[in-house]
Amino acid sequence: MKTIRVALIGLGNIGRNLLDILVHRQAAIAHDHGLRFSLVAAADSRGAAICAEGLDLAQLRDIKLARGSVAEIPLHGRAGLTGLGMLAQIEADVLVEASPTNLVDGEPGMSCSRLALERGMHLVFANKGPLVLAYDDLMAQAASVGRQVLFSGTVAGGLPTVNIGVRDLAGSGVTRVEGIFNGTTNYILTRMANEHLSYDAAVKGAQAAGIAEADPTLDVDGWDAANKLVIIANSVLHRPTRLQDLTVKGIRDITLADLDAAAAQGQAIKLLAIAERQGGDYALRVEPTWLPLNHPLARTGMWDMAVVYYTDYMGVISAIIEEEGPVPTSAAVLRDMINLYR
Ligand SMILES: NC(=O)c1ccc[n+]([C@@H]2O[C@H](COP(=O)([O-])OP(=O)(O)OC[C@H]3O[C@@H](n4cnc5c(N)ncnc54)[C@H](OP(=O)(O)O)[C@@H]3O)[C@@H](O)[C@H]2O)c1
Description:
CATH superfamily of the largest domain: NAD(P)-binding Rossmann-like Domain
Bound molecules: NADP nicotinamide-adenine-dinucleotide phosphate
Largest sheet: 7 strands, mixed
Distance between the termini: 13 Å
Low-confidence stretches: none
Number of domains: 2
Radius of gyration: 20 Å
Shape: globular
Order of helices and strands: EHEEHEHEHEHEHEHHHHEHEEEEH
CATH topology of the largest domain: Rossmann fold
Structural class: alpha/beta
């Protein structure tokens, strides 16, 4: 049995559900993979907790479920200690970064992941920010210290979008990628089309279902899908890419009349992230797209996200996930934690 010392930053939907999965799956993971994950440190916005022998996962999950802070853990909690301060004083094998996505400067995830690499930890990201802003730099730093960076939960949650592209298409060229990478917009468009709901009613439905923010701008204007396409372009297509390389159009202007017009022609409208090989480069865009109803992405339901890879030699590979909440992303983080040691 190999014990892996884990540090966790961010214990919201993703971090907290990761703890819950570990509580339930620890024995099976030990049996199937010979791994035991010991949480030696954790930080949220209010403080940190450190215990070299491993924090009590169920206790910590329950504190977070009750909206408390890791700083409240008896003996080990330290109010006001930041994630960065915590990393400076611990020994760990893996940092799981699940703090909020910040696309301005990537903080706190950016500094924490750099320090974690300096201190010899592998990185597992749920947080897209540092990858979108500094993919190449992070990978170069990781390579220079012989550490791995995995992030399979950052593009469509539990869907193995990144893993299929990075690992399973090895040797084949990718001519085109089409993705439904944002669940909220697919929920909105699917409910508009299927239930003849107005755009505003469908957005309210998404907010009531807890999948859209009070301000849904990042989703409905296409920026969340664009961030994910940046990660796919860098990791799968090996194209150094920043957000400004993409053209991005969201779904705000899509009306019921548009969806009816599409349906009358046997088509659906979906918000797609598209990478299209053109000469030696890829054209990258996010835009509402008409699709024939027999296209795999046209058939996606309101809880689905999906990807289609068109390849030179491996045919056309499609994958779809039905994902109703954050748990599959937490499970994807765990998948990465295990895959580090395969
Ligand atoms: N939710 C999803 O379905 C999903 C899917 C894919 C990727 N992601 C990404 O995963 C990450 C986490 O998402 P989430 O839904 O779990 O977010 P969340 O529920 O808002 O939780 C964020 C967590 O980060 C903590 N935090 C905030 N600022 C911090 C700081 N400066 N230092 C340390 N911790 C800090 C918060 O602390 P408190 O507990 O003290 O508030 C909270 O525990 C985000 O980057 C998100 O984009 C989420």
